[in-house]
Amino acid sequence: MQVNNEFLQNLRQDYKSATLDESEVDDNPINQFKKWFDHAVEAQLYEPNVMTLATADKAGRPDARIVLLKGVDDDGFRFFTNYLSAKGKELKRNPYAALVFFWPELERQVRIEGTVEKLDKETSEAYFDSRPVASQIGAIASPQSQVIPNRAFLEEKFEDLQSSAKDKKIAKPAHWGGYIVKPTRIEFWQGRRSRLHDRINFELSKGSWVKSRLAP
After folding, report:
1. Nearest to 70 by CA among 60, 61, 62, 81
2. Which pLDDT score is estimated for 14?
3. pLDDT band for position 17 (cuts 50, 70, 90)
4. For the chain, what percentages of helix, strand and coil (3-state, to nearest 5) are there?
5. Are 107 and 190 in contact (CB under 8 A)?
């Protein structure tokens, strides 16, 4: 098989598994997100908490990567990372982000935009302490987003830290912790036939959510 423009242009699916009507959508988009997330878990989708995180650098150029959702409540959506990583530096300069969840088996996506704040130290420490020891060591060993000479450099650093940390409680490093994306817009997208998808959008206005339908 040769991947070319003709092949790509003919790759398509006609979505038909479900519909989405305004009357079916909770007036609180966080509650609606939790319902859809529950559906994704019940469907046994692989890592339903995978989400794309988009930020922008100091020149306004977009930057995106996959991270994992590690908490959601009325305040927003939580994830954890290295504060000195590329995304950490971008969020420090420009504390706004977009998230995208895509669950292809359910023909659904959720798009989120909002402001970003660091979680408090206690919350970050509690989550760090809950992680497997190897993941804790990995967070310390990796100078995330920085240039390293080779794979061996990383593995040797990991092994050294693993040896020195044996039978000891590992403390969260100062450069690692959580963020919360506080949403100002949340859109629920349900795939439909003939590309006439259902899009129900929520915008935060004066502290209240305003629901509307968008054209696909």
Report:
1. 81
2. 87
3. confident
4. 30, 35, 35
5. yes
